[in-house]
Amino acid sequence: MTGPxxxxxxxxxxxxxxxxVLPGDGGRIGSVIVAGRELLVTSDxxxxxxxxxxxxxxxxxxxxxxxxxxAGREHHVPVNAAPHALHGVVYDRPWSVVAADTIxxxxxxxxxxxxxxxxxxxxHEDGLEVAMTVEVAxxxxxxxxxxxxxxxxxxxxxxxxxxxxxxxxxxxxDGEGIPTGERATPGTGPWDDVFTDLAADPVLEWPGLLxxxxxxxxxxxxxxxxxxxxxxxxxxxxxxxxxxxxxxxxSPGGPLVHTMRWAWTRLDRQRGVGAGERLSLAAAVTCxxxxxxxxxxxxxxxxxx
Length: 305
Fold this sequence. Notes:
Blueprint: E1 10-14, E2 17-22, E3 28-34, E4 37-38, E5 53-56, E6 62-63, E7 67-70, E8 73-76, E9 85-86, E10 96-99, E11 102-106, E12 115-124, E13 127-136, E14 140-141, E15 145-148, E16 150-151, E17 162-164, E18 167-173, E19 179-184, E20 192-198, E21 203-206, E22 210-213, E23 220-224, E24 230-236, H1 242-245, E25 249-250, E26 256-266, E27 282-285
Antiparallel strand pairs: 1-2, 2-3, 3-4, 5-15, 6-9, 7-8, 10-11, 11-12, 12-13, 13-26, 14-25, 16-24, 17-21, 18-19, 18-20, 20-23, 21-22, 22-26, 23-24, 26-27
């Protein structure tokens, strides 16, 4: 899965914004275009984990050696990024279209529990919203998130994206690249790490073109800014190896629901326009099981505190 396949697509368009969802390619967002500019990496020969914006469930990041314990019993999931298991079981299989704005998938045999994941999409002129719901048939640990690959350059000949990220806490990684649970003060990038306790909302800005602020009610963020062509800013309900480090059990009748929202400001049209025309900005992920106060609207985002 190195790029979009030939299956059905969900396409939403509002004004000069366009969203394309690819159910057959792991239920990912394959394209987000604002004023003719593509924000996402739309293909990569290295494989499915390197493009678009894909959902991660029922775990996000890595599970150490593909092993974890729940309710006193050890479970194993397949290792797909040796020696660990990476990004869950829903990003690499086709989803079913259940409505014009909704797709769903059942967890497969790689996960030792039964459950269903649903995503619902909404596009606005000034933003994007995605709701993810995990419903389970039996108690189980669940971590979810999204993994967007933002382009460093969204218009030829322009400056690369600037990333403003102000976390107060970073988890220490061991020699295998997995968080240990030990907390530390973040240094400067480049990063391939997980963070929490943000002092301000993360900002992606393509100078003179577009600014995106990301807001999340989830506690964890993975920042991966090492690739030359892209930057990943990933809101997650738990850190990598979260089913071991900070397990959260979801039970029948109590689904886990998250909402991700992006919104943007067009910097190339700010000058000389009225407040009513200015596009707003924010991104949010809402954890229904542990809600935090968020911005009142996409037009007036507030800090993720």
